[in-house]
TrEMBL record:
Keyword Mitochondrion: no
Residue ranges constituting the ABC transporter domain according to the UniProt record: 61-282
Biased composition (Basic and acidic residues): 47-56
Annotated InterPro entries: AAA+_ATPase, ABC_transporter-like_ATP-bd, P-loop_NTPase
Family according to the record: Belongs to the ABC transporter superfamily.
Pfam families named among the record's database cross-references: ABC_tran
Protein name stated in the entry: ABC transporter
Listed GO MF terms: ATP binding; ATP hydrolysis activity
Biased composition (Low complexity): 18-38
Keyword ATP-binding in record: yes
Organism: Halobiforma nitratireducens JCM 10879
Residue span of region Disordered: 1-71
Protein keywords: ATP-binding, Nucleotide-binding, Transport
Stored PANTHER family: ABC TRANSPORTER, ATP-BINDING PROTEIN
Length: 301
């Protein structure tokens, strides 16, 4: 992920895509969602899941000087960044910093009020899978029926076995016949993650995918994200779990007060500030506002 930050400008220009000839990103994305992949490690082994030294990858999404406002309230200002294929890109920042608005704008669900967002991926039937922060499903369906329903809804035309495999991936195989209205908040989120990968979209956007999950399942969710990236998917997620982000993400963007104030590979961000953790990077970058919740007209960030 690259863009306007306080990191070295030369690096920023080297990483920014050189042309803008591709078509504008379609806003006709399916807003129901989830990732696919088997977790192959125990939760305590995730620290080795994603290396910091990774090869250059092609950008799939590019934001160029994006602004977004809700009426007179400015939420995003001059945000420039990329989301790369085969990488986990994590968006972090304080509550109210604009993370959800940026995710929804990149996913094509919100139109920027300034700047542009360009989709550069394959011309897939479903370009972007999206997990909202608070997924909700129609009652009266089982978990398996729900996944099958959304598969038909997005035109994925997947065999029934694919729905079972997706539930297995997110750890819900044993709950396949349970009514969705009987699920806990965390299990509902896992159904949403399963949906986001239906049709194998080139981009999967996950808004707080580990929210409401216990530590072991949170590790599992990040393992799913890493495996998706290993298969070539561009994974963009937001999270407040800085430890998981630090050891899983290939690129991190720190958003504060609607602006990206720092971004790059976690190792580079740590080296720039001569600290040993992403949490220390976060604390130094937003220390002036520690403990403050910003109010920007939206409350789900």
């Amino acid at each position: 992920m690259t863009g306007d930050t306080d990191s070295n400008g030369e690096d920023r220009e080297r990483n920014r895509p050189s042309s803008r000839t591709d078509s504008s990103m379609s806003t006709n994305t399916n807003t129901t969602t989830g990732p696919t992949t088997d977790a192959e490690q125990e939760p305590n082994e995730t620290e080795t899941a994603r290396p910091d030294d990774v090869p250059d990858r092609p950008p799939v999404l590019e934001a160029d000087d994006v602004d977004h406002s809700y009426g007179p309230v400015s939420v995003l200002e001059n945000v420039s960044t990329t989301v790369d294929a085969g990488a986990v890109t994590a968006l972090i920042g304080p509550n109210g910093s604009g993370k959800t608005t940026l995710l929804r704008t990149l996913a094509g669900l919100l139109e920027p009020t300034g700047g542009s967002v360009t989709y550069r991926g394959d011309d897939a039937a479903r370009r972007i899978g999206y997990l909202p922060q608070q997924p909700a499903f129609r009652p009266g369906f089982t978990v398996l029926e729900t996944v099958r329903f959304y598969s038909s809804l997005v035109g994925a035309d997947e065999p029934d076995t694919a729905a079972v495999d997706r539930l297995e991936t997110v750890g819900l195989a044993d709950a396949a016949d349970r009514p969705v209205e009987a699920l806990s908040g965390g299990m509902t989120r896992l159904v949403g993650i399963a949906q986001a990968t239906i049709g194998d979209p080139p981009v999967v956007v996950l808004d707080e995918p580990a929210s409401g999950l216990d530590p072991g399942m949170s590790n599992h969710v990040f393992e799913i994200a890493a495996e998706l990236a290993a298969e070539g998917t561009a994974v963009l997620l937001s999270s407040h779990d800085l430890s998981l982000v630090d050891r899983t993400a290939d690129a991190v963007a720190l958003l504060d007060d609607g602006r990206i104030v720092r971004q790059g590979p976690p190792a580079s961000m740590r080296a720039d500030l001569e600290v040993d953790s992403l949490r220390a990077v976060y604390e130094q970058s937003v220390a002036a506002d520690a403990g403050t919740v910003r109010v920007q007209g939206v409350t789900d960030e």
